[in-house]
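Hey,
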Amino acid sequence: MVIYYHQKLKIRNMDNDMKILILLLTAMIFAGCTNIDYTGRKFTPQENVTFVKGIENVPAGYTLIGRFTMVAPPRTHEYYAEDDVMEKAREFGGDILCYTGANLRPHGVYTPNELEFGTPDLSRRKVSETEQQTLGEPVPLQSSSLKYERKHFHFLLYKKSEEVNRQLGF
């Protein structure tokens, strides 16, 4: 009876471990989709952050306190980027979040090579004289490179100048 109880307990714990593992793997998969980097100062968190497009729409009397760069899959729309970065802007204490643009950048290059699965190994293939006279020398096939791209969204974070001066002691 005791042995059965321990085996059942081990199975139950293994099920919980599997659930935890699946949750962790799922979180890791979704965490790798986007990446938000911030460079700048951190102030007390704000609830009200205004969103503007373009530096020319930032009113006078505001000081640049930081810059956000969000890296996402190429088809990510700017509205999704805005929502994600807006949460971070509140956290870093900005008053205005300014969207300055997005661009596609190469993330990696993949070039198939002759060691790839399905590529014939010409050194082991014997070509008869008849084949060589009829068809000529065998030429290994070449394929083009594939380029992976990521979309980079750029945002600037502003705060009221008098608030910045007050908190920094100027």
